[in-house]
Design a protein that fits this description.
The protein is an all-alpha fold and 189 residues long. The radius of gyration is 20 Å and the shape is globular.
């Protein structure tokens, strides 16, 4: 394998390892919010924000921690046949399924970017161009989307977290694809 692929794998794996290890502690924030929700409903006036914050934290925990889970190989698999295969056969199977996952994640990322553009007040047909225009300063924000609940938080932060998570997952599965190709070729990475 070329040296740039090894550098890419080290960079992506290191980035997702650090972010994943940090995201693991998000469960404590989720527990804290749910604990406060229980206490406030029992002893005080119920808090309006706790359910939605708990949902947002769970989405962030799941999506940001996903690439680290893929890296560790702790994702769910059907081991009925897979567990008995050789490492090379597993790598061949994983390489094919990772290609399908890359397509699926690409669709999710495009949908997430479209939804995020909508949450920034864009209703046209070119959401990627709009988001790029926001970054470089040629576009302006429209009416920001809010949740239809009583608390009414802005939705763009969680949509941004989802897009970042989908992108990180794409990076991680491309790293896994390179590792699988190396195993198929009998090379060490």
């Amino acid at each position: 394998m070329p040296s740039w692929t090894k550098s890419y794998i080290r960079f992506v794996d290191g980035l997702n390892r650090r972010i994943g290890r940090f995201a693991m502690y998000g469960i404590f924030a989720l527990v804290g919010v749910l604990l406060w929700s229980s206490i406030s409903k029992t002893f005080f006036d119920p808090s309006l924000w706790t359910l939605e914050i708990a949902q947002f934290l769970m989405v962030a925990y799941y999506i940001i921690g996903g690439p680290y889970s893929i890296q560790l190989g702790s994702n769910v698999r059907m081991d009925l046949f897979y567990g008995n295969w050789s490492d090379r056969k597993k790598a061949c199977y994983d390489a094919v399924t990772v290609l399908m996952l890359i397509f699926f994640l690409g669709v999710l990322l495009y949908g997430g970017l479209s939804s995020m553009a909508y949450s920034f007040g864009y209703f046209g047909k070119e959401p990627i161009g709009f988001l790029f225009g926001l970054v470089i300063g040629t576009e302006e924000l429209g009416h920001l989307e809010r949740s239809p609940t009583a608390w009414r938080p802005y939705l763009w932060p969680i949509k941004l977290v989802m897009c970042i998570g989908f992108f990180m997952m794409l990076l991680q599965v491309s790293s896994e694809l390179i590792k699988d190709i190396a195993k198929i070729r009998g090379e060490e990475i």
